[in-house]
Amino acid sequence: MKIFSADQIYKADKSTIEKEQISSDMLMERAATRLFEWIHTRLQGAQVNIQLFCGIGNNGGDGIVLARHLQEHGYNIQVHVVNYSEKRSKDFLLNLERLKDRKIWPDFINEDSSFPLISPEDIVVDAIFGIGLSRPLDQWVANLIGHINASRAFVLSVDIPSGLPMDRPPVSEVIEANHVLSFQVPKLVFFLPQTGIYIDQWEILDIGLDTEFLTHEEVGYELIGPPDVLPLYRPRNKFSHKGTYGHAVIIGGSYGKIGAVQLASNACLTVGSGLVTAFVPKCGYHSLQTALPEIMVLTDDDDENIEQITIPFVPNAIGIGVGMGTSEDTAKAFGAFLKKQENPVVIDADGLNLLAKHQELLKSVPAQSILTPHPKELERLIGKWDNDFDKLEKTKKFSSKNDCVVVIKGAHSITIYKDKGYVNSSGNPGMATAGSGDVLTGMITGLLSQGYEPLAACVFGVYLHGLAGDIAVHQYGYEALKASILVENIGRAYQELLRPPNRENSQES
Ligand SMILES: NC(=O)C1=CN([C@@H]2O[C@H](COP(=O)(O)OP(=O)(O)OC[C@H]3O[C@@H](n4cnc5c(N)ncnc54)[C@H](OP(=O)(O)O)[C@@H]3O)[C@@H](O)[C@H]2O)[C@@H](O)CC1
Ligand SMILES: Nc1ncnc2c1ncn2[C@@H]1O[C@H](COP(=O)(O)OP(=O)(O)O)[C@@H](O)[C@H]1O
Ligand SMILES: [K+]
């Protein structure tokens, strides 16, 4: 699903109004009707106190229209206009008049007003600012937002939590939304660590913006869910054999860190690679052979570290770096290994740390190789960033300059290739556990070895990895989820992804 910038949403708005030959207030009516339907379906007329805080722009206009619908259906409402500017939007004013025609008189909150009491049992509708927020809040508006946040009432934000800009981190107070009803498209800020913290749940309301515009407009980011990954899936062929699915090699490990290679190799095989060989220092031989009978093992001459990488065949895919250490000898072996590679490789963990330490090695990384840093590894690689938006821009530049795919791992991992980002939607905090990144490296390597293109291997692999975590969490809960359990659930993740749509929900039934 595409993620649009504020400018693009305004364009979609304009294009819809022109194509459908409707007025802008009709679009506002449509948006607010969707909001009303959402609330009415859940509340069914319950007499809870609903306090609507409306700004003076179109976000506020949505709130004012919603208030009218709620009142018409007998809900208990209080409407507050947050009077932060004299520049009221045309559709806000039109709908304010309509509200007054129905004898609803909002109270106007100004700089010197006292704030209304909000009980924890109330529902707050936050329609103060939408995507038009363009500068820091006046102090009294920030105080009002603080007052709403302190109320412990359920807060439903219209389009975006008020105070959250679309393209940079907030500088003052932001509404902490329990639920965001966002129009037509998800917003990038929902998925970034600095800004996503203001949102518990979000949902899209379809307000019928021009489909042609939405389909053809190029975007910088996409949100990746099942409809996006399913077309990437490469089905198995009846007459295939293990050679069809490639021979993958996982290189890594050092004394005390052989488990990382075990997890990655197991994930690589479980995601479907035909054959898997692990290359480790000698100390890893017995444990790997015992733990993973399906996997072959090659060893370095050194007992504790990788010092020379010799693979006596041409693998279909290689994943390197997990648990590998960063000793000088390993660095030399890594450099010599990279120089010999012609096909894309997957580089993780200490492989990334070595690249950061010896930046001259970057030119030996084959085109379209995959780098899977967590934020600390990314910082070592591309340097410090000012904020999450800057981080994404810097990563895009790094990816273009070095022709590599970068998977920024986190709660919503983002795969970057050149000027495009793919935001993952699966996964959960149970995956914040040792070794879950090693599992991802194995999975991506296993997908590459089966013939997935590098970008597809990342987008598909990251989604499948998160889905395995989401399935596992049902059985284990967040705390007890371990990396090896992720591997056990890769098969179920495939089944879940490929499950035909439920017949009962399909239109024929
Ligand atoms: N597009 C669509 O498809 C649809 C959009 N809809 C709705 O419209 C919303 C966007 O509305 P919007 O453009 O009127 O902006 P909004 O967020 O209400 O802000 C109001 C104005 O405040 C101003 N301002 C900014 N920062 C400020 C500050 N710190 N302190 C004081 N003032 C500040 C700024 O004006 P400025 O003074 O900068 O000219 C800004 O314009 C969108 O989120 C959705 O809810 C739906 O109705 C239908 C379909
Ligand atoms: N809160 C979270 N929600 C979803 N996924 C997460 C979360 N925390 C971590 N993950 C995922 O777990 C993995 C952690 O990787 P990494 O930090 O490299 O771990 P390790 O080095 O221990 O293997 C990444 O794929 C990341 O996206
Ligand atoms: K809002």
From TrEMBL:
It comes from the Bacteria. Binds 1 potassium ion per subunit. Pfam families: Carb_kinase (PF01256), YjeF_N (PF03853). K(+) binds at N59, D126, S162. Its cofactor is K(+); Mg(2+). One of its GO terms (molecular function) is ATP binding. GO terms for biological process: metabolite repair; nicotinamide nucleotide metabolic process. The keyword NADP applies. Keywords: ATP-binding, Isomerase, Lyase, Metal-binding, Multifunctional enzyme, NAD, NADP, Nucleotide-binding, Potassium. Residues 225-497 form the YjeF C-terminal domain. Its EC number is 4.2.1.136, 5.1.99.6. Residues 9-215 form the YjeF N-terminal domain. The keyword Signal does not apply. Catalyzes the dehydration of the S-form of NAD(P)HX at the expense of ADP, which is converted to AMP. Together with NAD(P)HX epimerase, which catalyzes the epimerization of the S- and R-forms, the enzyme allows the repair of both epimers of NAD(P)HX, a damaged form of NAD(P)H that is a result of enzymatic or heat-dependent hydration. Homotetramer. In the N-terminal section; belongs to the NnrE/AIBP family. In the C-terminal section; belongs to the NnrD/CARKD family. This is Bifunctional NAD(P)H-hydrate repair enzyme. It comes from Flagellimonas nanhaiensis. The lineage of its organism: Bacteria, Pseudomonadati, Bacteroidota, Flavobacteriia, Flavobacteriales.
